[in-house]
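Quick one, tokens below. Sequence please?
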């Protein structure tokens, strides 16, 4: 557990986050973009000027329209020359969200784009913190992995502020060149999740498909892969055949080591499991190999981290919703038919390497303190931009900087940090199962000191409660369980706190479920709303049908309520109005 005394001095990697900013551009025919540095909060301002009719066309045409519009761009306030560009909206499902993402193409590579001639401006609309994509990509970079760079930009269209954006470096030959790799190597992206042969190939990845059964496998790959330059398709076909033909186990372990840079792949997979990115294993990654080097091995590159740190899809709610999710099973969720990863997890030797690495990363590298430091620095850099409200001179085309209720940034950021804490507890149970009841957990407080945080996590990895210890008069044991209370307003459950030879006090946090049942869990809140009236919830002592409400703090984004308590005897708590 990351909060025990033995981990209090855990190493924090990459806390020194440099000010985020520098670089930018933007758009069409009579577009003029000027870029200025905003040193007070580390975001680059990007000004776009466009004829009214062109703006209307861009925002009124079908979002799936991919015909590029011509533009002119000025990339700095001091540069009077205009740079011609082409632009369009970018994305798939996100194309229908209110805040649009953009793709820009220059005639030649630009220094401020790390030498690339492309710019991806990501709206991050589904993320109220506007931090998740940046933090996730930073994690890969902090481990020295091959990954795109990312930077923040304020976008102004005709002098009206239209939101905070993240530019994520395009994965292409230029990225390889910057990483001192052979830019002519094979760089491919498996896009079978949207393949052209759905009637015949109903799967999210080529890895696990019998590609040898296809008369022309190279054409199949060209039609259903994104790629750069001239890939060596024989290399991709060989890898696909090997994955299909090789069962999990000793042969897969040896073959994987022969074909992949194992350390980099393990770190890539570990980070995705840590951040709960369920979308990464189908098409949100790239594969690279220097096919001109006979000793080269495959490398994997991360891409598109918008669904991470608790952001989740819910039926009828779409991606942009306030539901909070961290229980993505290591084995069951998100592999999207990708047997390259599924067989990795089924192979005990590889799984042991992965779990050892995840333990190390959680306790020594990507600690809760790491994320607290990241969010603190990022908020200093982007808070002013992210807090901008709609008005006459702001957010006219895009309407809102992000999904969700405005003015709750501290709660949104807290939910991101809560995700890390609860996700790690969940993963610990998955990697090291325990014999204990569901919805019940016992903790020996002799392992903790005043100031420590204790998580009560059940055998399935769901955290029932958290106790931040202020005073310990007698450590002992505490068992917390939760059961049904049908007639209770608010949350229809009751929490039983049962101490054994214990007298402690501190901040008790109770977690409740507010989920869509189709995902196999439950909603304990009285309606199906993600947030609704949950701001009015309070924790209370429950005895003989009476509730004595405590001075409470609620965060519906994390499904939790907190209050100060003293635990020296058996008590029952409820969350109600």
């Amino acid at each position: 557990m990351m909060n025990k005394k033995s981990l209090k001095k855990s190493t924090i990697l990459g806390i020194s986050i440099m000010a985020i900013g520098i670089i930018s551009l933007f758009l069409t025919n009579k577009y003029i973009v000027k870029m200025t540095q905003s040193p007070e909060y580390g975001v680059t301002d990007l000004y776009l000027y466009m004829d009214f009719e062109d703006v209307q066309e861009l925002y009124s045409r079908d979002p799936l329209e991919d015909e590029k519009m011509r533009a002119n761009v000025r990339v700095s306030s001091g540069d009077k020359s205009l740079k011609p560009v082409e632009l369009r909206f970018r994305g798939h499902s996100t194309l229908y969200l209110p805040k649009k993402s953009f793709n820009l193409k220059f005639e030649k590579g630009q220094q401020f784009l790390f030498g690339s001639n492309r710019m991806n401006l990501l709206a991050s609309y589904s993320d109220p913190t506007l931090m998740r994509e940046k933090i996730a990509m930073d994690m890969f970079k902090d481990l020295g992995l091959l990954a795109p760079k990312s930077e923040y930009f304020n976008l102004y269209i005709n002098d009206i502020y239209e939101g905070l954006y993240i530019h994520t470096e395009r994965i292409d030959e230029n990225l390889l060149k910057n990483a001192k790799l052979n830019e002519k190597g094979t760089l491919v992206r498996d896009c079978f999740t949207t393949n052209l042969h759905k009637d015949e190939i109903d799967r999210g990845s080529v890895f696990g498909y019998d590609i040898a059964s296809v008369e022309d496998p190279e054409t199949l790959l060209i039609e259903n892969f994104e790629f750069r330059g001239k890939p060596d398709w024989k290399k991709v076909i060989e890898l696909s055949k090997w994955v299909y033909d090789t069962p999990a186990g000793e042969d897969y372990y040896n073959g994987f080591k022969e074909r992949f840079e194992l350390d980099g792949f393990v770190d890539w997979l570990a980070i995705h499991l840590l951040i709960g990115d369920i979308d990464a294993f189908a098409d949100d990654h790239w594969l690279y190999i220097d096919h001109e080097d006979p000793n080269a091995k495959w490398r994997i590159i991360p891409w598109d981290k918008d669904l991470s740190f608790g952001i989740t899809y819910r039926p009828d709610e779409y991606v942009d919703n306030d539901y909070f999710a961290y229980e993505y099973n290591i084995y069951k969720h998100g592999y999207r038919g990708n047997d390259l990863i599924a067989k990795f997890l089924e192979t005990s030797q590889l799984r042991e390497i992965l779990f050892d690495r995840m333990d190390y990363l959680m306790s020594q590298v990507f600690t809760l303190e790491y994320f607290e430091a990241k969010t603190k620095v990022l908020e200093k850099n982007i808070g002013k931009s992210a807090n901008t409200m709609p008005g006459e001179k702001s957010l006219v085309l895009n309407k809102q900087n992000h999904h969700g209720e405005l003015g709750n940034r501290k709660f949104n950021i807290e939910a991101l940090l809560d995700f890390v804490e609860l996700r790690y507890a969940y993963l610990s149970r998955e990697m090291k199962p325990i014999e204990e009841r569901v919805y019940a957990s016992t903790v020996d407080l002799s392992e903790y000191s005043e100031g420590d945080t204790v998580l009560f996590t059940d055998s399935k990895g769901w955290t029932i409660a958290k106790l931040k210890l202020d005073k310990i008069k007698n450590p002992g044991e505490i068992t917390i369980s939760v059961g049904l209370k049908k007639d209770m307003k608010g949350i229809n459950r009751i929490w039983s706190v049962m101490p054994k030879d214990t007298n402690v006090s501190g901040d008790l946090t109770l977690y409740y479920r507010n989920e869509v049942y189709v995902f196999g869990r439950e909603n304990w809140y009285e309606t199906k709303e993600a947030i609704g009236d949950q701001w009015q919830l309070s924790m209370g002592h429950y005895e003989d049908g009476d509730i004595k409400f405590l001075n409470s703090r609620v965060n519906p984004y994390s499904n939790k309520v907190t209050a100060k308590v003293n635990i020296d005897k058996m008590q029952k708590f409820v969350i109600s109005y």
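Residues 409-431 form the longest helix (23 residues). The chain has three domains: 35-170+367-415, 174-365, 434-576.
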